């Protein structure tokens, strides 16, 4: 509920988000390589807590990605509705690094995925899936159809090579 006398803040070790009346999506799991804030409506102010950097204002259909290793924020235009799809069971990857895709798949399908080939960590993927309609096997098959990734599924884990 809006209360101008009591501003809403979201703070993680990586980012500080000051909400200025809005609808937004914020993803910053501790083991993720990137923190992402996507704005649907209103305005938010972002403060980088990893490196001294000017506060960044985000407007609708803009997204900021913070590379945790480098400590730098990057703003870009995007269709934020796509990044909010997770609230209705959609998985949307928009040039997302494969390690981030893997973390989302692990959380969404309660599986464990390992990399047999480290060079896969540099790949980025596009895709849109529905958790209700597509299982982990269908998403793995889609990754395999790119010709860049193969997988082997065991009883307890999935290996990408």
Walkthrough of the structure:
The chain is of the alpha+beta class. It folds into two domains: 8-80, Jelly Rolls (Sandwich), CATH 2.60.120; 84-160, Phage tail protein beta-alpha-beta fold (3-Layer(bab) Sandwich), CATH 3.55.50. The protein has three helices and eleven strands; from the N terminus they run E-E-E-E-E-E-H-E-H-E-E-H-E-E. The protein has helices at residues 80-83, 98-109, 136-144, and strands spanning 8-11, 15-27, 34-48, 56-58, 62-67, 72-77, 90-97, 113-115, 124-130, 151-153, 158-160. The strands form three sheets. Strands 1, 2, 3, 4, 5 and 6 form a six-stranded antiparallel sheet that branches. Strands 8-11-10 form a three-stranded mixed sheet, covered by helices on one side. Strand 1 (8-11) and strand 2 form a beta hairpin.
Enumerate the spans where pLDDT stays under 50 for 5 or more consecutive residues: none
The sequence of SSEs as H and E is: EEEEEEHEHEEHEE
Largest sheet report:
6 strands, antiparallel
Structural class: alpha+beta
**Strands, total number:** 11
Mean pLDDT: 88
Strand content: 35-45%
- Which geometry do the CA atoms define? elongated
Query: Treating each run of at least 4 consecutive H or I residues as one helix, how many helices?
Result: 3
Helical content stands at 10-25%
Question: Could you please say which CATH topology of the largest domain applies here?
Answer: Phage tail protein beta-alpha-beta fold
- What Rg, in angstroms, do the CA atoms define? 17 Å
Total tally of structural domains? 2
CATH architecture field of the largest domain: 3-Layer(bab) Sandwich
């Amino acid at each position: 509920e809006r209360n101008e006398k009591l501003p809403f803040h979201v703070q993680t070790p990586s980012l500080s988000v000051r909400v200025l009346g809005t609808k937004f999506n914020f993803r910053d799991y501790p083991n993720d390589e990137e923190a992402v804030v996507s704005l649907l409506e209103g305005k938010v102010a972002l403060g980088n807590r990893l490196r001294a950097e000017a506060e960044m204002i985000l407007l609708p259909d803009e997204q900021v990605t913070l590379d945790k290793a480098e400590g730098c924020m990057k703003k870009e235009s995007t269709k934020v509705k796509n990044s909010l799809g997770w609230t209705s069971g959609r998985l949307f990857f928009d040039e997302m690094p494969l390690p981030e895709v893997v973390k989302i798949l692990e959380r969404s399908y309660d599986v464990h995925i390992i990399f047999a080939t480290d060079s896969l960590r540099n790949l980025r993927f596009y895709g849109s899936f529905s958790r209700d309609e597509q299982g982990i096997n269908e998403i793995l098959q889609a990754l395999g159809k790119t010709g860049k990734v193969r997988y082997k599924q065991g009883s307890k884990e999935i290996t990408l090579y």
